Amino acid sequence: MNAWIVILAAGSGSYLFRLSMIILTGRITLPPYLERASGLVAPAAFAALAAAGVATACIGLGATQAAAPLAAVAAAVIAVLRTGSSYAAILVGMPALWITTSLLSS
Amino acid sequence: MISLHAHRRDIAAGARAMAPWLAGVVPFGLVIGVSAARADVPTWAGWLTGPLIYAGSAQAATIQMLDAGAAPVAVVAAALIINIRLIFYSATMARHWRGTPWWWRLVAAYLLIDPSFAVGLDGYRRLADRGRAHAHYFGGAVLLWVSWLAAIGAGATAGAGLPAWLHLEFVIPLFLVGETVPKLANPALRRAIFAAATVALLALSAPLHLGVTLAIAAGISAGLTARPDGPAQATHPLQQTTEVPR
Questions:
Q1: Which of residues 158-217 of B touch A (CB under 8 A)?
Q2: Which segments of A1-106 does DSSP mark as H helices, in order?
Q3: What is the pLDDT of residue A95?
Q4: Are B169 and A98 in contact (CB < 8 Å)?
Q5: Which of A41, A85, B5, B97 has its CA 20 to 30 A from that of B212?
Q6: pLDDT tens across B163-177, in order?
Q7: Binning pLDDT at 50, 70 and 90, where does residue B33 land?
Q8: In terms of residue numbers, what domain contains A87?
Q9: Does A43 lie in the same domain as A25?
């Protein structure tokens, strides 16, 4: 039940953001620092979510296999740096995860 | 306003202008769908983040945080912080939509997200006739919306049938790593990324799973400390991310 309420609340808030300046046009001027901050949101959010996700995966897999997600992330970072493509992280990282998980459990 | 018959060429032109964006949109939608299927939330609820939130990174954050058992207020706060850029898109489009019927503004605002903003703005800059420019925006935005929801649906369907050993729940963290690494070249973004990642790790056991929200705030604050007039300056939100409906 909570999930539905959360999604509905986040959706309603996002729609209000979309409508906000269309309704308030001419009445409010946004400060420049807020525009600057807006450009930082996505990278900060992605980094926070990635760090939390990887750490949670390491904890979830237990002590013996915790190295697998870290190896996958390392492979993903190298792949992105080499290719310049964001999707290389998944294309290289997932096989790296499967291989290291399999090696560590054998 | 728009006539589907009279403006069909502009609607088609808008859809064509959107087509290149779909190369990034569809894989991201698949990733969101797969993560929705694997997360500890009803798959339908995960899919509904598409039509309701309609912003990929906020959807990913919502699904991931719900899966981790975060407090509802923390999830909503994180999603809204991520979507704050929509206020700037709204401010930019407001001048083009002034004087249009309310129904148009309500629909057009709902469809407003990074790719539709970019394609639409291009139309408003090039086309002197506002009706034609609206049609251009509409054509691109509707194609994006349909493609996004279809991609999430396909990902959710495929993801639900795949074996657990594939650890598909790790697709989203890897995708986020892939999106983050190229941004390390920019000093302000680098500062924001390291601060956010550090705080996220330190606050992993924060009450109510507020760690991610705190980390985003810390990252933004750290990024803002970079020189505003130098190369570290964050430019337009669209240039910071390949954000596809994110």
A1: 165-167, 169-183, 188-189, 192-201, 204, 211-212, 215-216
A2: 2-24, 32-61, 67-83, 88-105
A3: 96
A4: no
A5: A85
A6: 878 888 788 889 889
A7: very high
A8: 39-105
A9: no
Residue with tokens 């990174």: B57
Give B85's contacts in chain A (Cβ within 8 Å): 38-39, 41-42
A42 and B CB contact within 8 Å:
yes
Do A45 and A92 lie in a common domain?
yes
Q: For chain B, which residues make up each domain, given as ranges?
A: 8-160, 167-240
Residues A24 and A44 in one domain: no
CB distance from A40 to chain B under 8 Å? yes
pLDDT tens track for B170-222: 888 898 899 899 999 999 999 999 999 999 999 988 876 778 888 989 999 99
- Asked whether the beta carbons of B21 and B45 are under 8 A apart, the reply is no
Q: What's the angle, vertex CA B223, arms to CA B64 and CA A58, rounded to 5? A: 35
Total domain count for chain A?
A: 2
A95 in contact with B, Cβ within 8 Å = no
Q: Do A44 and B177 touch (CB under 8 A)?
A: no
